[in-house]
Each structure stands twice: as structure tokens, then as C-alpha cells.
Design brief:
single chain, mainly beta, Porin, eleven-stranded mixed β-barrel, 1 helix, 8% helix, 67% strand
Length: 227
């Protein structure tokens, strides 16, 4: 009888463990303002400012400032070295700052189905003010855009997905393995010159500690000023 009771307790513990994991959700608004272009010949750059409003679109959840210099090897392949400063406001406490160095490869892979398929691979080195370790993270984005009207870039249907994988554990909370997935669906609108405006819905799925999951439903607006 005692052996049976122990077996039942073990089974109950196994079933109870997954139940401890929880999913939280939030509605957010992300605004991305990016300038990009040629400095001289094949030397290019981009610079962006990105405030993110969270907590039911009631307060700044994160502010990101990022820039990079690159070398354009061909019309379809560019390599960048960049740096980012991220501020995470903490209510009633000291803001958390994150610094990132990153290397990026941007590649236009081809034009299937009368659209354009591209890839962005980014390797980040991350430092946070609430820890001492350096975190490594790999990001891979696949993006596809297709004109809604033949021979016109006035309005393009746009979808992309970006996966994040942490490559090591850190004392400030990063855990190696799957970190997050971002999925976007929307439209790209042509502006004067080569500039564009992207609007749509972005779903951000974040793998948190203890098996918890966070899902952010994001209204996303991105302005690319190209020159």
C-alpha cells in the first residue's frame, strides 16, 4: 500500500510540473525610424531609433538605438558591423541598460513567385547593467514581399519570420536555446524616392524562465528613409 501511494505521488508530481508553466499576453505598439544609404561607393550605413510601448500600450517598455557600418559586396549581399544601446525602464527602480555589438549579413536570395525573398543573419554579443556575463545570440530572419499590382511597388504584401537562439547562459537571465520568434504580416507602402513605410501585425513569442511563455501582440510601424 505504501509503495502504491508513493507511485501515485510520483505520477501526480509529473503531471503537476507542466501545469506550473504559464502564458502571459500584452498589447504593444512598436515604432521604428530607420535611415540608410551609401556613405561612399560600397561603404553603407543604417541608423535606427525604436521606441516600444507596452503594458497595454500605456508606457514605454523599451527604447532601442542601433547603428551599423557595412560593405556592399554586390547588389544582393552586404556585411555590417554594428552597435546597439537598449534601455529597459523599471518602474520604481533603476533602468536596465543593454549594450550589443553585432555582425550582420543581409542577402537578397532571389525573386520567386514575382516577389522578393531575402535573409538577414545577425550574431549579437550582449552586456547588461544587471550582470557581468556576455551573452551570445543568433538571429535569422526570412522576409518575402510581393507587389499587389504587377510592375508596381506602390503596395507590397509583406511577411517575415525571425527566430532567436541564445548560445549561452548568463548571470543576468539568458538561457541557452530557443529565445523567441517574431512573425509579421502586413504591407509595404512605397514613398517618394526609395523610402518605404511598413505597417502590420507582429506576433512576438518569448521563451521565459521556468518554462513560462510571453506573447506580445504588436501593432508595428516602420519607416525606412533610403538615400
Amino acid at each position: 500500500m505504501r509503495r502504491l501511494a508513493l507511485s501515485l505521488s510520483a505520477c501526480l508530481a509529473l503531471f503537476a510540473t507542466p501545469a506550473q508553466a504559464a502564458t502571459s499576453e500584452d498589447e504593444q505598439f512598436w515604432l521604428n525610424l530607420t535611415a540608410m544609404g551609401s556613405i561612399k561607393d560600397e561603404i553603407v550605413y543604417f541608423a535606427e531609433v525604436q521606441p516600444r510601448v507596452g503594458d497595454g500600450m500605456s508606457r514605454i517598455d523599451q527604447a532601442l538605438f542601433r547603428g551599423a557600418l557595412g560593405w556592399k559586396f554586390s547588389p544582393s549581399l552586404t556585411l555590417y558591423q554594428g552597435f546597439a544601446h537598449v534601455v529597459v525602464p523599471v518602474e520604481g527602480g533603476k533602468d536596465v541598460n543593454e549594450e550589443r555589438s553585432f555582425q550582420q549579413v543581409s542577402w537578397v536570395m532571389g525573386k520567386p513567385w514575382d516577389g522578393e525573398l531575402s535573409s538577414r543573419t545577425r550574431l549579437e554579443q550582449r552586456w547588461r547593467s544587471n550582470g557581468d556575463d556576455m551573452g551570445w545570440r543568433l538571429r535569422e530572419m526570412l522576409r518575402y514581399e510581393k507587389p499587389l499590382k504587377a510592375n508596381s511597388d506602390a503596395v507590397n504584401a509583406l511577411v517575415y519570420a525571425e527566430g532567436f537562439v541564445a548560445l549561452n547562459d548568463t548571470d543576468w537571465g539568458a538561457r541557452s536555446g530557443f529565445d523567441q520568434l517574431r512573425s509579421f504580416v502586413g504591407a509595404e507602402l512605397g514613398l517618394p524616392g526609395a523610402s518605404t513605410l511598413e505597417v502590420g501585425y507582429l506576433n512576438q513569442l518569448i521563451n521565459q524562465r521556468a518554462g513560462d511563455t510571453r506573447v506580445n501582440h504588436v501593432a508595428s510601424v516602420t519607416l525606412f528613409f533610403r538615400h
